[in-house]
Large ribosomal subunit protein uL30 (Heliobacterium modesticaldum), 62 residues
Amino acid sequence: MATKLKITWVKSAIGYAKNQKLTVATLGLKKLHQSVLHDDTPAIRGMIRTVNHLVTVEEVEA
């Protein structure tokens, strides 16, 4: 089965660089404490690495 990543936005991006705010938006997160599911790809992993201090990540079997 394919692994998916559950990404939850847990800390505000206010005061952080613009590229980090854009990365949060690109991940599909619009509000704090919102969660989204994404396929586990290198591109998504790179975005998570950019904002790892703002989000939490869980691996989910889909």
